[in-house]
């Protein structure tokens, strides 16, 4: 047996909306029809009782004044004693003792009579004649056709409820079709959309206009991601070609060389190139993970300790490096692996271009903590500062020619800082070289 929920989900939105609206309308209208059918009888009897009580009240005043009551509006008025026997010269009324008791109490009663007899409705009240005798003044009205009216009225109400539900369903079908027609046009336009194209926006301020705008924004982001992927793939292929070609050439030289010293030197060059290739691949992998949204959990990281550890990892043959911690500790909200990657890349970049010294400063502010790296190298020209964090970007100056890097280090720094809500900027150091400032959000250890 098919799953009804699965079958229901496979129906069109227009059909589901129409079906739900029709069922709800039918249920509501049928309930109202049944309630109205139950109220038809009491409503009819209430109208009859009002007329009967008005006639009884008029007749009672006549009895109390000693005059004979007259028939009012076609209603038959009788005067009885308190036992229910007639005192107006007419025949005995078709009332039982229980009916008489209810009438004396001011209640209206219905006398059904035999099966083929027309039921009658009675109302009465007790009046005092001038001689002091108690009289029961009653009025009756035949309920001819009342049962048929109640039955037919109930059926009519049910029929109207069904017709109303059908009308609601048809109206919903037409309205939803008109409302969803622009969505269908949008879907067909999206299917035939060329690369780089955009959906025509309806220009209205309704949900369809907002949907078209959001879809165009999504298409723009997809195009941007595709362009970045194509550019990244081309740059990566270009960057990988150089170390691979160099390794191949040096390996061929080493194989052809008969001199052991030359072969050893060639192997050392191959090792350098393989290390460069490994660094490049690690950077590509890190960037790919960042593009995929893989972000490690944030935790408090003490930057002064991390900076000193990064300096120790560089080794003794690097330029003179000094750590200037203006605070005893500075806690940032990040991941230890991210902080290590940022510091290693910034310090390696500074060491490659520094003439003699690198100064690393750690500062703490109210909402941010900063790491500032200054070198005394050639610096970065202002026109290149906006692009140094792009992937594989190289400036055509002395700093770029002396680099020997992969072109990914600063891109990794920018990506790691950006996804934590921080910022990294480049400027000019007091020693004339480059200054890189990295800011992370501060973590309050007391919280």
TrEMBL record:
Q: Which reaction does it catalyse?
A: ATP + protein L-histidine = ADP + protein N-phospho-L-histidine
Localization (cell): Cell membrane
Q: What is its EC number?
A: 2.7.13.3
Q: Per the record, what is one GO cellular component?
A: plasma membrane
- Cite the Gene3D superfamilies for this sequence: 1.10.287.130, 6.10.340.10, Histidine kinase-like ATPase, C-terminal domain
Name by which UniProt lists this protein: histidine kinase
List the GO molecular function terms.
Answer: phosphorelay sensor kinase activity
Domain (Histidine kinase) ranges:
235-444
Which InterPro entries does the record cross-reference, listed alphabetically? HAMP_dom, HATPase_C_sf, HATPase_dom, His_kinase_dom, HisK_dim/P_dom, HisK_dim/P_sf, Sig_transdc_His_kin-like_C, TCS_sensor_his_kinase
> Organism, per UniProt?
Prauserella sediminis
Q: What class of enzyme is it?
A: transferase
